[in-house]
UniProtKB/TrEMBL annotation:
<dbReference type="Pfam" id="PF26079">
    <property type="entry name" value="Baseplate_J_C"/>
</dbReference>
<comment type="similarity">
    <text>Belongs to the Mu gp47/PBSX XkdT family.</text>
</comment>
<dbReference type="InterPro" id="IPR058531">
    <property type="entry name" value="Baseplate_J_M"/>
</dbReference>
<feature type="domain" description="Baseplate protein J-like barrel">
    <location>
        <begin position="87"/>
        <end position="171"/>
    </location>
</feature>
<dbReference type="InterPro" id="IPR058530">
    <property type="entry name" value="Baseplate_J-like_C"/>
</dbReference>
<dbReference type="Pfam" id="PF04865">
    <property type="entry name" value="Baseplate_J"/>
</dbReference>
<protein>
    <recommendedName>
        <fullName>Baseplate J/gp47 family protein</fullName>
    </recommendedName>
</protein>
<dbReference type="InterPro" id="IPR052399">
    <property type="entry name" value="Phage_Baseplate_Assmbl_Protein"/>
</dbReference>
<feature type="domain" description="Baseplate J-like C-terminal">
    <location>
        <begin position="270"/>
        <end position="353"/>
    </location>
</feature>
<dbReference type="Pfam" id="PF26078">
    <property type="entry name" value="Baseplate_J_M"/>
</dbReference>
<feature type="domain" description="Baseplate J-like central">
    <location>
        <begin position="192"/>
        <end position="263"/>
    </location>
</feature>
<dbReference type="InterPro" id="IPR006949">
    <property type="entry name" value="Barrel_Baseplate_J-like"/>
</dbReference>
């Protein structure tokens, strides 16, 4: 820290040293007692000055101060995006469903949704109508699986069931400080000009939900560019997100370029091993810990390291708190490293663990 030595005692001593020599400056004296409160306040000021210093540099800044620093280069934080999809209402014919009807998933971490359009159930006696809906709040929590939405909030008489026949997608969290800083550093360290490869990477990452990008210039001849993208989870984004990236790049790219945008192809990594557990641990605990560790490891490789290392998988298993030892470890059926193609990304497949 720049001002870590500016303590109350150091400041007080400087003020005492600057006072006339012929006055009493001992602890408990009038001079000492009058200068002590000022020294405390000045020490607190130095603490705040240190925070100001850190907030002024991008790599140590945070929150709204990082927003201001990045904003100087026209780089703005990507905000949360709401997940979208459709829901099916079943009930008596003629039942009206107004726009803005509130729905939710069941369970303690319920996620709320609203219909984006009004509708009426068709048929002679009973039927089903499908309406567009979106999450109430932005974020990846709205990307719920098919069948997750089952509750209606509020009074909607006559409806028997509601569900989402397909998963909701497109929801993304507000950009984290770490991801936002990385985009700033990429802009500074990878000059983007005249539609070079860095420029396409920058454009793709400006779309909410896109975290990693690979650019292949002249991949299919002159003036052709392929852009391969990953989402915030370092997996293949949905088709709607790929189309959003393609549309945005089309709006800003140089004239004449032929751009292809694709999601990375996922290569599943299947892990199998026998486990010796620590006393009191369960296989379900070990399973959850190992899957979490493997997902974190694979995320670090995405578009950065093309090798899934057998030894790293073994380390993840051994580092799980519930695991004492392992045996018969196989990764995709073997005991060797797995090479990942340049347009692919390694994702967690099946994890088969046994005692």
């Amino acid at each position: 820290m720049a001002y870590e030595h500016q303590t109350k005692q150091a400041i007080l001593q400087r003020m005492l040293d600057a006072s006339p020599e012929d006055i009493d400056k001992r602890q408990g004296s009038v001079t000492h007692d009058l200068l002590s409160p000022a020294a405390i306040e000045l020490a607190l000021t130095y603490v705040e000055l240190d925070q100001v210093l850190q907030a002024g540099f991008a790599d140590t800044s945070y929150g709204e101060y990082l927003d201001k620093r990045c904003g100087e280069l026209g780089i703005y934080r990507k905000q949360a995006v709401k997940a979208v999809g459709s829901v099916a209402f079943s009930g008596p014919s003629g039942t009206s469903i107004p726009k803005g009807t509130e729905l939710a998933t069941a369970g303690p971490e319920s996620v709320s949704f609203v219909t984006k359009e009004a509708g009426m159930i068709p048929g002679e006696s009973a039927g089903t109508v499908v309406l567009a809906a979106e999450a109430v709040a932005g974020g990846a929590s709205g990307n719920v699986r098919a069948g997750a939405i089952s509750l209606i909030r509020g009074n909607l008489a006559g409806i028997l069931t509601v569900t989402n026949e397909a998963a909701f997608d497109g929801g993304t969290d507000r950009e984290s400080d770490a991801a936002y800083l990385q985009r700033y550093l990429d802009r500074v360290r990878k000059p983007s000009t005249s539609g070079n490869a860095h420029h396409y990477e920058q454009w793709a990452k400006e779309v909410p939900g896109i975290a990693a990008v690979k650019v292949f210039p002249q991949w299919n001849g002159p003036l052709t560019v392929k852009v391969v993208v990953l989402d915030d989870a370092r997996t293949a984004p949905p088709v709607s997100k790929v189309e959003e990236v393609a549309a945005y790049i089309e709006s800003v790219r140089p004239i004449g370029a032929q751009v292809t945008v694709e999601a990375a192809t996922e290569t599943p990594i299947h892990v199998s091993a026998g486990l010796t557990l620590v006393q009191g641990a369960s296989m379900s605990q070990a399973q959850a810990q190992i899957e979490e560790g493997l997902q974190a490891y694979l995320k670090t490789l995405a578009f950065l390291d093309p090798i899934v290392r057998y030894a790293k998988i073994a380390n993840v298993i051994l580092e799980a708190p519930a695991v004492l030892d392992y045996s018969d470890l196989t990764v995709n059926g073997g005991a060797t490293n797995i090479a990942i193609d340049e347009e692919h990304v390694a994702v967690l497949g099946t994890v088969n663990l046994h005692a």
